[in-house]
Design brief:
Pfam families: NT5C. By secondary structure, this protein is an alpha/beta fold. The protein is built from eight helices and six strands; from the N terminus they run H-E-H-H-H-E-H-E-H-E-H-E-E-H.
């Protein structure tokens, strides 16, 4: 088992070195990738609902399986984060705005999210990246994770940064290369290339001669 894990790590590092993604062929999930959404969920749950939970405790994407709290309370937090992200302390992951701004100068950036509506995220970007010209960030809200595949295919996306392993399982057989953004809930064994941060993402993109 130790040998297999070591081989997997070496293989992922090798792919990381070799991979150079054209800017027009990559797209991104929002929650857990661009924004530090689940950390905010934990902070609100602890402060407003007195839930005893740490960020690293969220070892399942279906977080209510591992967090002991009332469903109604959890849904209240989710609704606030979903519809009012621009009015609360939902922060970008470190480096996200820098990389997305660089990409936007080359080609419009595409975000595909399972959120039900895109407009609150458009307002969120105006708050956190006001320097981005209108239209340089495109957000498509699918409503479900399974609906991402069709959108990505229609948009000609070949690489997708995602934090949900089950979505990666859906994309990979259809010719879209999923790249996992490391989070506590996706560290179970899988074969996908994993990035730890936006510096890692930047290193995968082919910037040569495009800026």
């Amino acid at each position: 088992m130790i040998q297999n894990n070591r081989e997997n790590i070496i293989e992922r590092k090798t792919r990381n070195i070799m991979l150079k993604i054209p800017a027009k062929e990559i797209a991104f999930d929002f929650d857990g990738v661009v924004a530090d959404t689940f950390r905010l969920f934990v902070e609100i749950a602890r402060k407003d609902y007195h839930v005893s939970v740490e960020y690293e405790d969220i070892t399942d994407y279906d977080f209510l399986k591992v967090i002991k709290m009332e469903l109604d309370d959890a849904m209240q937090i989710i609704d606030t984060i979903t519809y009012l992200p621009h009015e609360i302390d939902l922060l970008p992951n470190l480096g996200a705005m820098d990389v997305l701004s660089r990409l936007a100068r080359i080609s419009p950036v595409l975000l595909v999210t399972a959120r039900p509506v895109a407009e609150p995220l458009e307002r969120w970007f105006k708050r956190h990246a006001p320097e981005l010209p209108a239209g340089h960030i495109r957000i498509i809200a699918t409503g479900t994770n399974t609906a991402k595949l069709e959108i990505l295919q229609e948009e000609g996306v070949r690489y997708f940064i995602e934090d949900r392993v089950d979505t990666c399982h859906l994309l990979a057989p259809e010719g879209i290369t999923p790249i996992i953004y490391d989070q506590p809930w996706n560290r179970k064994d899988h074969s996908y290339l994993t990035v730890k941060n936006w510096g890692d993402i930047s290193s995968l993109i082919n910037w040569n001669g495009l800026e």
